[in-house]
UniProtKB/TrEMBL annotation:
Xref: PANTHER family: 6-PHOSPHOGLUCONOLACTONASE, 6-PHOSPHOGLUCONOLACTONASE-RELATED
InterPro entries linked to this entry: Cycloisomerase_2 (IPR050282), Lactonase_7-beta_prop (IPR019405), N2O_reductase_N (IPR011045), WD40/YVTN_repeat-like_dom_sf (IPR015943)
Source organism phylogeny: Bacteria, Bacillati, Actinomycetota, Actinomycetes, Mycobacteriales
Pfam families referenced in this protein's UniProt entry, alphabetically: Lactonase
Gene3D superfamilies: YVTN repeat-like/Quinoprotein amine dehydrogenase (2.130.10.10)
Species this chain originates from: Nocardia terpenica
Top-rank taxon: Bacteria
GO CC annotation terms, alphabetical: cytosol
GO MF annotation, one: 6-phosphogluconolactonase activity
Protein name: 6-phosphogluconolactonase
Family per record: Belongs to the cycloisomerase 2 family.
Length: 336
């Protein structure tokens, strides 16, 4: 039976929950790993051999783990200082660099990763950003990097040198969003021609066309994530199904997951409805098969497993599982 490993960071417990997810949606806890105080954003290397967890209490650092082949169990390797309190982690597409964005520090950074999977302590880049950098993501070609500035209502555009890890502002250096939108997280469509941004403060998701020749984004349209116009927005995460057919976004005030169908020609989103979920759903992820979604509730200390109907994107709750305190980030990888 096909299995995946899911990782959930529990900020107030200082732990990472390791879970097994089977093809029928069964979730089994297999390990609870001490990571450190205020463990929050997670990132998995592209070869799925290493997991990185940002520790958002002093001293600000990243915990590096080995991922057991076939089991998904974590073995601690090292905890390495970072330039600031990081709200988001990602690796470049080769796994040789750790990218990080600091919401309180207004910076992005790039640190080398050694062949052993351990992040090196001396960053090759620490760059100032407009207020509240909230995510940093390489494009599918690994030639460009994008960082959102929630307080600056901008998406920063960088050229990326995968040999040195250096970032250079692109032309233009940023794309503006609607005033007060608060761009938070960004994901690329599997086909590489589209990108989507969750806007935390106005409760929307924006669709962008991506030009891989220039490394620039062009706004196509923006859609509400909220179930009704009177809702107070606090939008958090967004994820795509692996086939690129559906997009999901979570909102923490309405405790819902919004579902959209992605229409490639023309590139638009069709809203398909809202699913009630765990209280304060800051983090969720979709299984590599595209058949299940796992949503964690910061206020419930629990996770709900949903099945995804591939043709319609409909979410059906299957089971609920307890977690540590303040679960906030979910990552899922296939197990060989």
């Amino acid at each position: 039976m096909t299995r995946s490993a899911a990782y959930v960071s529990n900020a107030d417990s200082g732990t990472i929950s390791v879970l097994h997810l089977t093809a029928d949606g069964t979730v089994t806890p297999v390990q609870t790993v001490a990571a450190g105080a205020a463990v929050m954003p997670l990132a998995v290397g592209p070869d799925r051999r290493h997991l990185y967890a940002a520790l958002r209490s002093r001293p600000y650092s990243v915990a590096c783990f080995d991922i057991g082949s076939g089991t998904g169990r974590l073995t601690a390797l090292a905890t390495i200082p970072l330039a600031d309190n990081m709200a988001y982690l990602a690796t470049d597409r080769t796994g040789r660099y750790l990218l990080a964005a600091s919401y309180p520090g207004d910076v992005v950074s790039v640190n080398p990763i050694g062949p052993d999977g351990v992040v090196r302590p001396d960053p090759v880049e620490v760059l100032s950003t407009p207020p509240h950098a909230h995510s940093i993501v390489p494009d599918p070609t690994n030639r460009y990097v994008f960082a959102t500035s929630l307080g600056g209502d901008a998406i920063l555009q960088f050229r990326f040198d995968p040999e040195t890890g250096r970032l250079t502002p692109n032309t233009p250096a940023f794309v503006v969003t609607e005033p007060g939108a608060g761009p938070r997280h960004l994901v690329f469509h599997p086909a590489g021609r589209l990108a989507f941004v969750a806007n935390e403060l106005d409760g929307t998701v924006s669709a962008f066309e991506f030009d891989s020749d220039t490394g620039c984004l062009t706004l196509l349209d923006t859609y509400t994530v909220l179930p009704d116009q009177g809702s107070k927005p606090w939008t958090a995460e967004l994820r795509l199904t692996p086939d690129g057919h559906h997009l999901y976004a979570s909102d923490r005030h309405t405790n819902t997951l919004a579902t959209f169908r992605i229409n490639p020609h023309p590139a638009t989103l069709t809203p398909l409805g809202h699913t009630p979920t765990e209280p304060c759903p800051r983090g969720f992820a979709i299984a590599p098969t595209g058949h299940h979604l796992l949503a964690a509730g910061q206020d419930s200390n629990a996770l709900t497993v949903y099945s995804i109907d591939p043709p319609t994107g409909t979410l059906t709750p299957l089971a609920r599982h307890p977690l540590g305190r303040n679960p906030n980030w979910v990552e899922i990888i296939p197990l060989s």
